[in-house]
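Anyone have tokens for Two component transcriptional regulator, LuxR family? Sequence:
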Amino acid sequence: MIEPVDDGPLRLVVADDHPVYRDGLAMLLGSVAGLTVVGTAADGAEAVALAREEQPDVIVMDVQMPVLDGIEATRRIAAESPSVGVVVLTMSEDDGTVFAAVRAGARGYLLKGADQEEVVRAITTVANGGAVFGAALARRIAEFFAAGPTGPEAAFPQLTAREREVLDLVAAGRSNAQIAATLYLSPKTVRNNVSNVLTKLQVTDRSQAIVRAREAGFGR
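Reply: yep, here.
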């Protein structure tokens, strides 16, 4: 039996772009005593809107979704609806995605292979103010933060050293031609690096990358 919050069932939203998985998970969680699913979302934008409208206790969030990915959706939910907990449930276990989710404000991160009991336990813990990360992920997160990096050095671990240099100059407002001259690279190499940065940051254009980078301390 799930411990209710405020004498009522925990209110959930399930966000996933695969309808069979999304509906199946919603049905499974809705069948658990003490949980109720108040909405489902097929993309990150719908998840943000449902968080704003329904103010659920927890959103179970996929990462790879159209319109708005789960990381950016989590970031917006944390800013707009801080009382809503986010549990990321995804196939991805690479460090870049894990750390991006944590920085965005996710308080739980599980892989889609997790069993029902583990998912329910994570939802309950996050709803009650805790944080849950699978054992292997928790160890990697602990090791990363134990190393103590701060500032821009700690941000965007998925980027290579060269990509971080390029991003720093992009955030400073430099054009590709200026970046090429500064780093003694060909314009084509700079274009490739910028493209890789946009992909890895899961942003659609240069302006979004600049916002993300400046928030992390780049471009100063």
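The CA atoms of residues 89 and 110 lie 5 Å apart.
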